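#lab-general

N.A. 3:47 PM
ok so I finally got the sequence cleaned up, no stray characters, all 171 residues accounted for. can someone with queue access submit it? mine expired

B.Y. 3:52 PM
send it over

N.A. 3:53 PM
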Amino acid sequence: MSADILLLLNHNEWANNRLIKLTESLPADEPFHRAFPMGEGSFHATLIHIAGAMAHWSDRLDDRIPGEPIEDQQFTINQLQPLFDTSHKLFKTIVHEIIATDRLDEMMVHPEAPKPFTRRVAIHHVLTHSGHHRAQALNMLRHILNTTDLPDTDVIEHAIGNAIFSHNQEG
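B.Y. 4:20 PM
back already:
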């Protein structure tokens, strides 16, 4: 079952990077902060929330107290790729370590959760959370750029683009 997690982990990075690449087509900084009645309220805030959640859960999965949230910080468009690179690297490293040490089904506690859950559940939470907010961010971009011609970021597109056709390939 860890092959499924690795597929989704790699898909998450690929899809987030496709989204970040689209920021290069933004006409100015203003649309980056334009208010929307969805997600975290703006394209900027939604992207930062995705990266911040990966960092938060990386700490939780590694049994560390999470660092300061980044959601209140302002980032420029040029700072997004390095921010996501750092978040992806940290999250992927911890997930690979959990898999290598056979701790996917180990229980963990989150102070805001009513009951403990497995590390596997926490990893799936982060990956589906990213996908949920990516969809919101793509919808915001559709309005900012006034286009429906945006790239697909779903798992099938990732698999086809990376020639992943069986569960034995991680891509």
